Amino acid sequence: MTDFALPETRYARNGDINIAYQAMGEGPVDIIAVPGLCSHIEFAHECPGFTAFLRRFAKFARIVSFDKRGQGLSDRISGYPTYEERMDDVRAIMDEIGSRRAVLFGFSEGCPMSILFAATYPERVSHLVLYGGFARAADMRPPDWTQEMIEARIAQRVKGWGNGDMMKLVAASQAQDKAAVALLAKFERLASSPGSLKTVLLLNGQIDVSAILPTLQIPTLVVHRRTDAIVPVALGSKMAAQIPGARYIEYPDGDHAFWTGDIDTMPGDVEEFITGHRDNGPAELERILATVMFTDIVDSTRRAAEMGDQRWRGLLDNHDHLARQIIDKHRGSLVKNTGDGVLATFDGPGRAIRCALAFSTAAQQIGLPLRAGLHTGEIELRGRDIGGIAVHAAARVMAQSGSNEVLVSRVVTDLVAGAGLKFSDRGSYELKGLPGRWELFAASQ
Q1: How many whole angstroms separate alpha carbon 181 and alpha carbon 187?
Q2: For residue range 3-51, what is the model confidence (pLDDT) as tens digits?
Q3: pLDDT for residue 5
């Protein structure tokens, strides 16, 4: 796998059901990541941190992620699979990839199934890692709750499914980030239908593998974040205490989602638990090729002074709404608002240019002249933010742009040849902090 390629989705067949999985890394150890409530192995890579987390494991192992039957890219089914069927699906994946023995990495609701698998097939499990997990679902609700109260709570969650309400608890640190919530909402919709979710939640309420814990003979590591908003940390420590010889690690902060926050420490602890040592080298930043777009409102300070704070704030809100709407329409990713502009990335330079032109036109209609700069190059993903020379280059290109103008670098024009876009030569410039002279072009349709 190259630095820019994501793992391919493949299928393991269990009877008439196809289970979607991805494998990353070529290490001597196999790790099977057992998902929680819902998953979508392809769209999950859109969530900042997810790919980097898996790549940290891929430095010493072959890490395999999959979608449960009925969810994500796996075959849809009627009803909900039994634990026996889900265990058979894991075995089918292991057989498909030629893995005789593997580490099970259970996440959240995937922990009880991993425990049951390890107890049933100890010859196929070398180590058990349980993150953000629980053994008994009843421990997660008040003891005096009636079945009617439980069903009412489930109905409430199902009603809000697809809006990001559930995933906002999973990734609580992103709950106030509108762009992140929109991404999480899309994740919900792609991972599971509301009806399927209801079935899962009703059956999950009956989970109880606590009687199995004392029988486990597999080396087990239990890890939990103290500020987990979904599964109380006390349930993680309780589960660890009931497993003979289990090691327990509690992290001081972080979300229920394993891919947010510190995504190096836990994989390092898992590596040390499995192999006896850990890679203490610098964490590798995730790098991808992207087209970076910077925009800026021309003379924003003067306009704000003329309008007054209240009117200007309302205009900025309209600007931000337009930005999110148009960037999403062109399949871009809004990285952040810069106060009076935006920073966004795109996986295609043609879409980036058309987005910048559309955004400029829409902003003019509400009385805001924009300038925009675009450059294509390698960027570094840093959580929700990005870095790298390409980001600085796009900012410098924008600084040369005039009012209602979209400027692009030479590399952008080369990549969209034949796409029906027009460019006017704006000359060559020395861009602050960047080597050489840069040929810039004004884009139009």
Answers
A1: 10
A2: 446 789 999 999 999 999 999 998 899 999 999 999 999 999 888 889 8
A3: 60
**Residues 89, 212 share a domain:** yes
Residue 204 banded pLDDT, cuts 50, 70, 90: confident
Q: What average pLDDT does the segment 69-77 reach?
A: 92
Q: State pTM to two decimals.
A: 0.67
Q: Helices 265-275 and 50-58 meet at what angle, rounded to 10?
A: 20
pLDDT digits (tens, 9 = 90+) for 371-389: 999 999 989 887 678 888 8
Looking at the fold, whether 43 and 140 belong to one and the same domain comes out as yes
Q: Hey, is 41 helix, strand or coil?
A: coil
Residue 309 is part of which domain span?
Answer: 286-444
| 189-193, 316-320, 366-370, 418-422: least confident range | 418-422
Give Cα separations from 171 to 137, 181, 413 (angstroms).
20, 9, 38
The β-bridge partners of 18 are 13
Burial class (CB in 10 A: 0-12, 13-18, 19+), 314: exposed
**50 in any annotated domain:** yes
Q: For residues 257 and 319, state if they share a domain.
A: no
Structural domains in the chain (count): 2
* Secondary structure string (H, E, C) spanning 322-383: HHHHHHHHCCCEEEEECCCEEEEEECCHHHHHHHHHHHHHHHHHCCCCEEEEEEEEEEEEEC
Does residue 280 fall inside a structural domain? no
271 plus 308 within the same structural domain: no
Instruction: Give the rounded distance of the alpha carbon of 141 from its chain centre.
Output: 28
Are 75 and 169 part of one and the same domain?
yes
Q: Exposed, middle or buried, 44 (CB in 10 Å: 0-12/13-18/19+)? A: buried
Residue 153: C-alpha distances to residues 48, 112, 198, 396 (Å)? 30, 22, 11, 51
Q: Are residues 233 and 293 in the same domain?
A: no
